[in-house]
UniProtKB/TrEMBL annotation:
Entry keyword set: Membrane, Transmembrane, Transmembrane helix
Keyword Membrane appears in the UniProt entry: yes
Signal peptide (UniProt feature, chain positions): none
Regions that span the bilayer: 12-33, 211-234, 254-272, 446-467
InterPro entries assigned: PepSY-ass_TM (IPR005625)
Name of protein: PepSY domain-containing protein
Length: 476
């Protein structure tokens, strides 16, 4: 048995030592430089006030014009070519001009370029030499599935000092992503390496999922076998731990013993990042719950009068929540007004859904639901509203918890016992986001960098040993 473990660990180690080193090194980079995205603050800063005088059709008419029978959300924003309704169904998006109901999808590069320039100006960026780079379904920074409803995307280079590139949805004409030269550079040695994320592989999600899941599983087995061998081969000299090996093998053994707990938990939790419902639940509503949460609303409940707020707004959104239609007007990132469409007397003073609203929905989602409570910070199972400072409500319905954004009614996460366990087995072990460490971010930074550096050094000893093994095998 032991000889089989030695043989299996040896050749798995040879095969995966470079991969281990890559994961540890890129993990340090990822901790400080996340994958490029357009934050809500950046998106909102790029919005112009809605020109209400140009809005000549109601949201109900816009939904009809979009031809999305399952529409559950609609937003009104201002583009360079006028106000536009963005209608969202469960799987598709549609854009309609608010002036006459015409299709507002973007096919012209000139329109996309004008949208990008206006967005850049409002964010204080320099768009003077902006130019179209491509119109394509995928590139390295737009491969995530969240962009599927927006493809193909227009990619524009602003030509500014930061090397900013902006992506425009051809479906809605919205800015959906931005990157800078620095972000792109660091992510080539960060997320792209860590997630094994080259475009040619990642664009086929199912293939990428199987490949990375399999590699991570084999890496976990290699680490486990190494831990078993490392413990079995411990020698004691008095009270000191010793090793029967010499040279690089001794370094590999001793550093491995010091890093065993971290390496095992980190590689195992990294494998769980690719779980995607295989062992744990996904934290998403069941199909039946999703139908209840976003039941098709009565779009005619909204009227033109509701489109005339007293002060300028940058975005108006209508959303279905528990079979009712709500409208929220957003004049600034951190403020909004919220009303139930057709019931202007029931404006929410705080600009968010009330406990009663949440309770009405959760009573339809599940049985035995208690009174919803506002999620406190910090929390063992954190969730954040799309609007800074807005509450997230948690409703406990027996063993299932629902976290709901008080600002826009989104169900942020569905936490059953399996999902709550996954939070600790994956997120806590892989990113060290334990509440006590999140309260001390500098200490957490030091631990993550230090442990990953230890794992990197351990991997380098494995690379040296593996190279020597291969050289001796093929030159003998």
């Amino acid at each position: 048995m032991m000889s089989a473990i030695v043989l299996l660990h040896r050749w798995l180690g040879v095969a995966f030592c470079l991969l281990f080193a890559m994961w540890f090194a890129s993990g340090i980079v990822m901790h400080f430089v996340p994958f490029p995205s357009l934050t809500e603050a950046e998106r909102f800063a790029g919005l112009a006030p809605v020109d209400r005088a140009e809005v000549r059709i109601t949201v109900a008419e816009a939904v009809t014009a979009s031809k999305l029978p399952d529409a559950t959300r609609a937003r009104l924003i201002q583009r360079g070519d006028g106000p536009v309704y963005i209608v969202s169904g469960r799987s598709q998006l549609g854009a309609v001009h608010a002036s006459d109901g015409r299709d507002a999808s973007v096919t012209s590069a000139d329109i996309a370029l004008a949208i990008a320039r206006a967005h850049a100006v409002r964010r204080g960026l320099d768009p003077a030499p902006a130019a179209i780079l491509a119109r394509a379904d995928y590139d390295q920074w737009s491969v995530p599935n969240g962009f599927d409803r927006h493809r193909p995307l227009f990619r524009m280079a602003l030509g500014d000092a930061a090397g900013t590139e902006i992506y425009i949805s051809s479906r809605t004409g919205e800015v959906v992503l931005d990157t800078t030269r620095s972000e792109r550079g660091w992510n080539w040695v960060g997320s792209v390496l860590h997630w094994i994320y080259p475009t040619v592989l990642r664009r086929n999600w199912a293939l990428w999922d199987r490949v990375v899941w399999t590699l991570s599983l084999l890496a976990s087995i290699a680490a486990l076998l190494g831990a078993v061998l490392g413990i079995v081969r411990i020698r004691m000299r008095g009270r000191a731990i010793s090793t029967p090996y010499r040279g690089w093998h001794a370094l590999h053994h001793l550093i491995g013993l010091a890093a065993t707990l971290f390496v095992l938990t980190w590689i195992f939790s990294g494998w769980l990042s690719m779980d995607h419902g295989r062992l744990f639940s996904r934290g998403q509503l069941t199909p039946a719950e999703a139908r209840v949460a976003a039941a098709a609303p009565d779009w005619t409940a909204s009227s033109r009068d509701q489109l005339r707020p007293a002060s300028p707004v940058r975005e108006v959104e209508w959303f279905a929540f528990g079979g009712n239609l709500y409208r929220r007007d957003r004049p600034a990132l951190g403020s909004q007004t919220l009303v139930r469409a057709g019931d202007t007397s029931r404006a929410e003073q705080a600009g968010v859904l009330s406990v009663r609203d949440i309770q009405e929905l959760t009573a339809r989602l599940a049985a035995n639901c208690g009174m919803p409570s506002v999620l406190a910070e910090p929390d063992d199972y954190p969730a954040q509203s799309v609007v800074p400072g807005a509450p997230v409500y948690r409703a406990r319905c027996g063993e299932v918890w629902f976290d709901i954004d008080g600002a826009d009614g989104s169900v942020l996460q569905r936490l059953d016992a399996s999902r709550r366990a996954y939070r600790w087995f994956y997120s806590a072990l892989h990113t060290l986001d334990f509440p006590v460490l999140m309260a001390h971010p500098r200490l957490r930074d030091i631990l993550i960098v230090g442990l990953c550096a230890l794992g990197l050094v351990f991997s380098v000893t494995g690379i040296v040993i593996g190279w020597r093994r291969l050289r001796s095998t093929f030159t003998a």
